[in-house]
Amino acid sequence: MSHLAYHRPASSADAARLAAADPDAKLLAGGQSVIPSLKLGLLAPSALIDLAGIAELRGIRLQGRTLTLGAMTTHAAVSASPEVRSAIPALARLAGGIGDRQVRNRGTAGGSLANSDPAADYPAAALGLGAVLRTTRRSIPADSFFRGLFETALEPGELLTAVDFPVPERAAYVKFPQPASRFALVGVFLSQAAGAVRVAVTGAAPWVFRVKEMEAALAKRFSPESLAGIDVAADRLSSDIHGSAGYRAHLIAVLARQAVAQALG
To answer: Does one domain contain both 124 and 141?
Structure first.
């Protein structure tokens, strides 16, 4: 490994300044993606900016109908939180199903969202709940945040600080995990609030996306039967050693119906 500088800022403002001053530096949250990438030689940053010492980036807060997660809040903390379990049980279950115990105790919500892995779970929750992602510069709706494969709306020097999740009337997340990694081969997160429905899919394409046809059908009648005959075209989906695009298209339809049934209890 080449020379690598290491910074451990005490505030998000300091971290943002360091990142802005060095475009080749890499922000380090839980490290569950960055460290393996460094070991494999897929990343060669000039420096690591470790966010672990920034207390203001951690924590869970429920205010009215908004649940806020600090960007450095771990998956384990989200899974165990009484506030999350009460307000959005589907989000607690999602966090509890990520990786293994070590990953859940190191990985963070903000790190997952900022990385925008095509098979990650949190992007589906953010898009499926209509979350707002807050940074050191602005607030970004989830619909505008995910731009492509490992690509988001974050600009150089911009730091994700927190995520605001609207509390829905009902929600569910169902995924078909890849057995070794527990990443989603396909995952479907859906929610219903004030008559509107959101359906987000992860694992099936280069980045998370919504299925508007399913949303429209479920807004009329929130029932698994409402999804009969609605399919996602396979030509927009990914195909790899774990599953073909056609298989993923089939899974989306199956998991979406299961998610509706789960949300109905």
So the answer is: yes
Alpha carbon 146 to chain centroid, angstroms: 10
Minimum mean pLDDT range among 34-43, 95-104, 106-115, 204-213: 34-43
CA distance 239 to 252: 14
My answer on whether 161 and 184 are in the same domain is no
**Which of 35, 40, 33, 52 shows the shortest CA–CA distance to 181?**
33
pLDDT of residue 2: 64
Q: pLDDT tens digits, residue range 96-142?
A: 999 999 999 999 999 999 999 999 999 999 999 999 999 999 999 99
Q: Are 174 and 146 in contact (CB under 8 A)?
A: no
User: 150 and 118 in one domain?
Assistant: yes
The whole-number pLDDT of residue 40 equals: 84
Q: What pLDDT score does 95 carry?
A: 98
Q: Which two tokens stand for residue 65?
A: 């109908």
Percent of the chain past pLDDT 70, that is, above it, reads 99
Hey, what's the torsion of the CAs at 20, 23, 24, 30, to 10 degrees? 50
CATH number of the domain within which 30 lies:
3.30.465.10
CB 10 within 8 A of CB 143: no
